[in-house]
Amino acid sequence: MSLWSLHTWKRDRRSLRRALPTLAVMGALLGTAAGVAAGAAGAVERDVLGSGGLTQVELSSFEGDDSVRPLTDSALRDAEKTPGVRQIVADYPATLYAEEEGTYDLTSHTLTPGDDLPVTRGALPAQLGRDHVVLPASSQGTDFAPLLGRTVAFGYTKATGARAGTTAVVKLTIVALYDPSWQADGPGVAYLSEDTAALLAAARAGQTVEDFRGQEGAQSAVVVVGHQEQVAGVVKSLQGDGFSASAVSDRVRNLPGLFGAADLAMRIGVLVLALGAVWLGVVRAADSARARIGQFAILRILGYGRGELRRILLGEAALSGGVAGILGAAVGTGVSVVLAGPLSEVLGLPITVADALPGPGWAAAVLLLPGVGLAAGTLLGSRDVLRRDPYLTARAHS
Known about the structure:
By secondary structure, the protein is α+β, with helices and mostly antiparallel strands.
């Protein structure tokens, strides 16, 4: 870089410093997208895959789709015989509502191995008992903290006809409370043992538990595999047996919504930043060189060659791109850190400040692309102006 570059970059308002604001904004947008995607990915890896998701397969049942095998007891027993399968836990959604105190109406699900509840009070037993329930700390205006450890009467629906039903009561002990912001299965969910969940679902359908599990079956099920290397083979075997099976790791690594949008924005941002920097280099270098053509002509007459003049412009490009990269990285990182809290609520996963920092590769892209792209554009944009005869140019500007 020429020593003249620092002087002209600071003092001359026609230097390539004019490209700095635009490049800084583009760098900040890329840094923000990289931080958001890194935060979401880090939370998923730590709190979902790290809690056992790498060794889990999800089975789904689709009502009315004959091509998918229903998750009945016999079907699940067949699935358990698949080599590599250690355990299958079926989910039977139903509803629990207030019987004595409060006005809550909670959806109930089986507590499966894939549910890594952020428990705030109490403790989850190694295996949830038939008379146990795990509730959110609060839901629908009801604070469940005073009820922790107590046996509470809950109401549930028991069908007595095609469109008729009555209220039945089940007494369950509240063994733990979890953070209500964790909503993997929706807001206000009560988690039960598989047997209790099946009891409620069968009652709502007006069937015995045996008939319901043997005919209707579960809505979904989590298959625990012995080792993550066996997951692909288990998925293939289950799909070959007619099940709708997918690895949990595949599902969470391709989260839709904000995570997917941020990841796409990040990749597009790299291309936009690189091409934008080159385009700005071409346009700004040509404009800057034309605006200062008289100065450059005098330097040529004093013995400076085109190479030296080109180094002056490249130095200005490097300074502009470098400052823009630093500003973009700083602002983008700051914004992604600020968004860590709202993103945690959207995904239902805790995202730390460290999670929200862009990875080294993306940080390097934000820092380096503005300077590299602007320099490349400068080489292209300044060629015609620097080729002009310095004596004719000086005479024309005298």
